[in-house]
Amino acid sequence: MLFEQIATGGCQSYLIGCPETRIAAVIDPELRQIDRYCGLAAREGLRIRYVIETHTHADHFSGACELARQTGAAIVAHSLSPAPHTMLRLEDGELLHLGTLAIQALHTPGHTRDSMCLLVENHLFTGDTLLIGGTGRTDLPTGDPEALYDSLFHRLLTLDPTLTIHPAHDYKGHISSTLAEEAETNPRLQKRDRAEFVAMMRHLNLDAPTHLTEALRTNMSGGKTVAQLLAEAAAVVPFLGMAELASRVETGALGLTLLDVRERDACDAGHIPGAIHLPRGQLELRVDEMLPDPTARILTCCEYGRISTLAAATLRTLGFRRAAALDGGMKAWREAGLPLATTPKT
Q1: How much is the pLDDT for 180?
Q2: In whole angstroms, what is the distance from residue 58 CA to residue 11 CA?
Q3: Please, which residues have CB within 8 angstroms of residue 193's CB and are 6 or more apart in sequence?
Q4: Based on C-alpha coordinates, what's the Rg of the chain?
Q5: How many CB atoms lie within 10 A of CB 190?
């Protein structure tokens, strides 16, 4: 079996392939590593046929949709996966053929309802069910400590103890382990009494993942992350530097319509001289009233430079082809000591 392990912080993903047919699969892809998966596959002369999710991730952004889009691969998950973009849904015990390799799905709920492990030859890809020196948590949506106990002690630990395990996360620099090693040394697997194990899992008091809501939203729906939206907007929007705008403000020759897209209170408290106010939330509804000339050059600005980028992209979509965004935001403008105007309260 051709095998590559790709780490992204604590996230682990895997490229496996058949050396005879050159067909490959990527297990638990991370969105930031799409180019790397494609590059590794090209280097080895592999064609990615499957993109496999061991479970619905809550702590990082899945690269499944984007990798499938770029390669034509089918997205594979357990039958209980909520993701509508899943193309091939596996039931417990079913096999997926990857050339001469057979990938067997083992339903191992507990971390999530749709968790599964993948058995390939003498390798066991355990997702977040079994980690090196730990287990997946059970306090996130669809987690169940009782189910995790059964998955660990009545399923995984009944398999060949010499199996090499490859988890979806590792934060301590481990590359792999075996079932035998985990059975002997993993602290959570020493709680062999069901009640003790369940009590332990219910009182871990772990912090919530940083991007919990956004990760669940995008991974369950195939929707876009905020970073993706910003990157797409930045790709179609030109920018004007802060020094150039400051020079224009100083000479009184803006040569464009400066549009502050922050909320009213923020704009009134301090804006770039000459700016007009149109909040981003009202842009589509009031654009014709506020910007009657679609040929005018428009420059958007906001607090940090992100919302203004989205606003400029929206304006271009609406037909304002000369819309651009300030390269930076009002926070940087203030910190640079550049001129500000205020709007008196009435």
Answers
A1: 97
A2: 12
A3: none
A4: 26
A5: 12
Helical segments of the chain, H only:
34-44, 64-71, 145-153, 179-185, 194-202, 212-221, 226-234, 242-251, 264-269, 283-290, 307-317, 330-335
Contact by Cβ (8 Å): 273, 341: yes
Of how many residues is the chain composed?
346
Q: Is the pLDDT of residue 114 over 90?
A: yes
Name 79's Cβ contacts closer than 8 Å, sequence gap at least 6: 89, 90, 91, 114
CA 88, CA 50: separation in Å to the nearest integer? 9
Average pLDDT of the chain is 94
In angstroms, the CA 261 to CA 312 distance is: 10
* Burial bucket for residue 200 (CB in 10 Å: 0-12, 13-18, 19+): middle
286-334 tens-digit pLDDT: 999 999 999 999 999 999 999 999 999 999 999 999 999 999 999 999 9
- Exposed (0-12), middle (13-18) or buried (19+): which is 65, by Cβ within 10 Å? buried
| Burial environment of residue 166 by CB neighbours within 10 A (0 to 12, 13 to 18, 19 or more) | buried
Query: Which of 1, 92, 335, 62 shows the shortest CA–CA distance to 221?
Result: 62
Average confidence (pLDDT) over 59-72: 93
The tokens of 220 are what? 């369950």
Question: How many whole angstroms separate alpha carbon 7 and alpha carbon 165?
Answer: 15
Q: What are the structural domains of the chain?
A: 2-223 (3.60.15.10), 228-335 (3.40.250.10)
pLDDT in tens, 153-194: 999 999 999 999 999 999 888 888 999 999 999 999 999 999
* Angstrom distance (rounded) from CA 206 to CA 39: 36
Q: Where is 258: in which H helix or E strand?
A: strand 257-260
Q: Is 6 helix (H, G, I), strand (E, B) or coil?
A: strand
pLDDT digits (tens, 9 = 90+) for 23-65: 999 999 999 999 999 999 999 999 999 999 999 998 888 999 9
